[in-house]
Amino acid sequence: MTNPKTIIEIRDGKKVFGNFTALTDINLSIRQGEILTLLGPSGCGKTTLMRLIAGFETLTSGTVSIDGSDCAGTPPERRPVNMVFQRYALFPHLDVFENVAFGLKVKGMSKAEVKERVNRMLHIVQLDNFANRYIDEISGGQSQRVALARALVNGPKVLLLDEPLAALDLKIRQHMLAEMKRVHTETGATFVYVTHDQDEAMILSDRVVLMEKGRIVQIDRPEDMYARPKSLFAAKFLGETNLFDATVSAVNGIGTTAVTPAGIPFLGAETADRHVSERITVSIRPESLSFQGGETAAQSAEGTVEDVVFIGSRSFYTVRLDDQSPVRVQVQRNGRLALPSIGDRTRVYWDSANIVMLPHT
Amino acid sequence: MSLSRTRTGALLATPAILYMLVFFVVPSLILFAYSFWSSASYRIVPDFQFENYLGSLASPVFWKVTFNAIRIGLFTAAITLILSIPVGYYLVYVSRSQTILYLILITWFSSYLVRIYAWRTLLGTSGVLNTVLLQFGVIDHPVSAFLFSPFAVTITLVHIYLPFCILLVVSSLSEIKRDLVDAARDLGTSSIGAFFKVIAPNAANGLVGAFMLTFILVAGDYVTPQMLGGSSGQTTGLLIADQFRKTGNWPLGAAQAFLMFGVSIILYVVITVLGRATGLIVKRRAKTEREI
Amino acid sequence: MLLRIIVWAILAFLLAPLLIIVLFSFHASPALSFPFAGFSLRWYEELFGNAQLASAVIKSMTIAFLTALVTLLLGATASLAWLRFGHAGRGMIEALTVTPIALPGLFVGVSLLVLFAQSGTQLSTATIVIAHVVIAIPILIVAMKARLALFDPSLEEAARDLGASQMQTFARVTLPLIAPTLIASSILAFAVSFDEFVVTSFVAGTETTLPMYIWSMMRRTVTPLVNAISTLALFFSIAILVASWVIGQARRRSAIAGRLEQLEPLP
User: Fold this and answer.
1) Which chains touch A (3 or more CB pairs under 8 A)?
2) Through-space distance between the first and last CA atoms of chain B, rounded to whole angstroms
3) Which member of A231, B130, B190, C94 has the greatest number of CB atoms within 10 A?
4) C-chain residues within 8 Å CB-CB of B93?
5) What total number of domains does chain C contain?
6) A16 in B contact zone (CB under 8 Å)
7) Which three-class secondary structure state does DSSP give residue A16?
8) pLDDT tens figures, B216-252
9) Element (H or E) spanning B86, and its range?
10) Confidence class of residue B284 from pLDDT cuts 50, 70 and 90?
11) ipTM of the complex
């Protein structure tokens, strides 16, 4: 992955439908070989962005270039990208083999070569024995593999996947995620993956593009986006978090101190761009809170345990702090530590390293 | 892409739309224009006068045959709908039987004239019904009243339009999911109760539509009453047809066709209003429109 | 159970008159009454020597064939347009093409008659075909609509995405998917035309189609010959319906058969 080449470049992209702006200020470089996820709630423009790359939509302004050449006006059939459709769009009048062979045949490839390539691809997606099945004779998971094979057999420079797991149930979904990672490794193709599911994005991607209301709000590696969200939206969309409105009281070389209206102080490690009396929102993930203080968890607040939910090895506590704000605390269950029960007074501790300070909205 | 898609669509739609404009919409408009023209000794004169309408409305013969057509239409449509509902219910909720569906389609596509002829054969004085009844001693001499009676007209019309009405009922019931019936059953209604409390209110628009469509087609059918009704088979349709084929007073025929049309629309409104007033027809929010 | 009995009783009501016609077409005596006097093919023999009847049948076949062809072409383009339209466009196509089904043949017949009279068009086979297409299109559109509602527009996008041009997409995806229904529906158009009587009686001029021939026989006298013609017409309708059904179902089987020939063990 040293100095990866840019395969798709979108500059100042804007897309308007009638009087609705679907996308604006889109600047995105997709690197060769990566799995890039377009993540966001429905209506954020992620599918439109993908359809722009595929050629089913054209930009109102800005440019899309694939492998260095501007592809304005290039119809979908002449773009070196292929797509896995949300409901697969497999051809019901063709069997699995013919579905996968479709792209090669319209390009006029010789019969022998078509056969060889299709069979190789069916082997990769482990459907060797299903070549002559019709689309209504295979399961949802198998349909998904056919759709994957049908797109990949054309050797696309970029594979576009539009919520490919949305139609599958949870168990198969997890299996298919692993499968897609394997196929990605085996083929080395670039994947652009559209989803509204943060877990899929986390598991699968090298980089996540988080979108909201037609804009890209953050592009980062999934772990960085989780640990260092740059906006309230990012903090809330990826995983669960506790949020506190606060005002910056001091900024110095060690970090920034912010205080909630009820007087709970938060000392964060970051110093950048903060100034005294600025209103911010403090975000702390439930797993960054604990009931034990220590060297790394020196800050704390007091409250009463309101509710406990056990999920296997973890427990989720809801603690109402003395300023009446509820916080969620996730603890790893471990027999040696005494944990509070419902109604108990308790102290909740955290570490400055886990505090994220976000612009107040 | 989406723009060129609709443009291709418009291009593709042109032939069919043009065809229907030229051979359906334009003729209807000409016919409407004709209804204001006048006719003098087999010659048709462009004009703008209401005599065709006013004359028909003032004519006792017109009202007599129109009432006859409406009576036959309402009576037949009611029987047809009542018979269609159990078949439709059976096909939609009990058994998606292809055999039954195809038997219905076969009768629908079997010749219109053949079916009229069949009933003449069955009901005639030396027909099947009379000979069978004679043999069983139910009657002692052939009954001529079977044929050329309102009874003969109605039974034949029901036979002709029942398949069509069944298909309409099937399609309107198909929109009501089985779950609703199951839910009603689960909540303690009988299957007949489920029909009246759940299906009928929801399907009311479709059922009224089926009734009205059958009514319009039956009331406009003049061949069957003519062939099986004898003197009782005079309907507006026959009157109109005769203006075009025998009398040659096309403007009058055109006006009467539109009067018949108007009567159908008035009836439709009356039935819908009555249905709403008695709570038999429930206004349903159009789901599709909200989803867009 | 009661429902089943009612349903079958209604079906018996629908079918019995037709069966009786068939039965009496083989009756050895001209009487249309029981007791049955034995089977005979005499009415059919009489029919086959009838030149007028033969020409009426040929005329009806020709008209029905032309009607089916025109309806197929107009219906196919309208269906493709339907797939490309939103709600408003679809509504417009439907309003224009389905309305005639809700009007008595009388209305369609006289309005076309005034059109032809006004434009000075001579009534002929052509005017009959024109009229039959007007009543056949609604049936084709209604039949297609049910099928097209299931058509997934992303299939066309998928084909484009895989490198197929607009024409290739049409030939390899859209057409194969809608063709069986189109052909089945145009066969129904054939059946409708073959049987049409009311509209024809206004626009036929001096032409005699089979239903018009039957009509003239019916008016003159009750003759067992009509039974025989009716039986043939009935079986012809059934044959058409069966053909339409078989074609509607055929897609899968033919496609599978095509693949089986290529079937070879995979590496």
Assistant:
1) B, C
2) 20
3) B130
4) none
5) 1
6) no
7) strand
8) 889 888 899 888 887 777 888 889 998 888 888 899 9
9) helix B60-89
10) low
11) 0.85
Q: Does B34 sit within 8 Å of C114, measured CB to CB?
A: yes
Task: Provide the percentage of residues in chain C whose pLDDT is more than 70.
Answer: 90
Residue A269: phi, psi to the nearest 5? Answer: -75, -20
Q: In CATH, what class is A240-359? A: mainly beta
Chain C residues touching A92 at Cβ < 8 A: 155, 177
Q: Please give the CATH architecture assigned to the domain spanning B26-35+48-291.
A: Orthogonal Bundle (1.10)
Sign of CA dihedral C136, C141, C146, C147: positive
- pLDDT exceeds cutoff 60 at C264: no
Residue appearing with tokens 């859209």: C174
- What's the CATH code of the domain at C124? 1.10.3720.10
B1 has a chain A CB within 8 A of its CB:
yes
Asked if the bond preceding C35 is cis, omega within 30° of 0, the reply is yes
- Check residue A290 and report its DSSP letter: B
Whether residue C37 lies inside any domain: the answer is no
Report the residue of chain C nearest A112, measured CA to CA.
C262
Mean pLDDT for A256-273 is 83
Q: Name the pLDDT band for A2 (thresholds 50, 70, 90).
A: low
Q: Specify if C18 maps to a domain.
A: no
Question: Which residue in C4, C5, C7 has the most chain B C-beta atoms within 10 A of its own C-beta, making it the best mutation to test that interface?
Answer: C7
Pairing of strands A81-84, A158-162: parallel
DSSP H/E element including A246:
strand A242-251
Strand, helix or coil for residue A350: strand
Q: Which chain C residues are within 8 Å of B105, Cβ to Cβ?
A: 241
Q: Which of residues 230-289 of B touch C (CB under 8 A)?
A: 237, 240-241, 244-245, 250, 253-254, 257, 261, 288
d(CA A240, CA A219): 19
Q: Considering only CB atoms, which chain A residues are within 8 Å of B2?
A: 57
Does residue C3 lie within any of the structural domains? Answer: no
Partner A contacted by C173 (CB < 8 A) = yes
- CATH code: domain A6-235 is 3.40.50.300
Cβ neighbours, 10 Å, residue C256: 12
**Closest CA of chain C from A311, distance in Å:** 41
